[in-house]
Amino acid sequence: MANNYHARIYVTLRSSVLDPAGTAVESGIKQMGYSGVEGVRIGKYIEMKLTAEDETDAKTQLDRICDRLLANPVIENYCFEIDRLVSG
Amino acid sequence: MANNYHARIYVTLRSSVLDPAGTAVESGIKQMGYSGVEGVRIGKYIEMKLTAEDETDAKTQLDRICDRLLANPVIENYCFEIDRLVSG
After folding, report:
1. Least buried of A5, A26, B82, B88, by fewest C-beta within 10 Å?
2. Can you provide one Gene Ontology molecular function annotated for this UniProt record (chains A, B) (predicted)?
3. CATH second-level architecture of A3-85?
4. Backbone phi, then psi, for B63, in 5-degree steps?
5. Where are the domains of chain B?
6. Which of B26, B79, B70, B9 is nearest to A29 (CA)?
């Protein structure tokens, strides 16, 4: 029987990869007067619903979706959290 | 005395706003064979370190940074989590 899950996926640049967008945002924040801000890194946050047999199946689907579509494994890491949606 | 905090910020499109990028990703996922995926929404995930007097000060700084720089309040919501970094 299929279950419904809600997934929250975080895709971040690997720490060894430069983040020019993050640097630009950090510069903007400092110009606002917040000099104590540093290490700004910008990633992606993706939400979706999916149906799966069980939690293991949901994780397998999400691993493939992240590896092949959402993240570039050469320069990005990903992680995700899933919750089972209970109807009723 | 200043404390160091680590912030994780999530910027998401308001639910009333269309997300063409999310729709495109959802179409791609379905073409991979995962027909049970729906409601894909793409947002931003931002990490940074900041110094602040206390947690209240850190939240005030982050609210201003999000309102004025990271999110467009007309079409986006934001939320954040902060952790105090303990040195030693």
Report:
1. B88
2. phosphoribosylformylglycinamidine synthase activity
3. 2-Layer Sandwich (3.30)
4. -60, -45
5. 3-16+42-85
6. B70
Binding-site residues on chain A for chain B (CB distance < 8 A): 2, 10-12, 22, 25-26, 28-29, 32, 34, 36-52, 61, 64-65, 68-70
CATH superfamily of B3-16+42-85: Phosphoribosylformylglycinamidine synthase subunit PurS (3.30.1280.10)
- Residue-wise over A13-39: b if at least 16 C-beta within 10 A, else e? beeeeebeebeebbebbeeeebebbee
* Nearest in space to A9 (alpha carbons), one of B31, B43, B80, B11: B43
- Asked whether the predicted pLDDT for residue B32 surpasses 70, the reply is yes
Q: What is the mean pLDDT of chain B?
A: 96
Interface probe for A, chosen from B6, B25, B29, B76 (most Cβ of A below 10 Å), is B29
* DSSP code at position A24: H
Contacts of A2 in chain B (CB under 8 A): 36
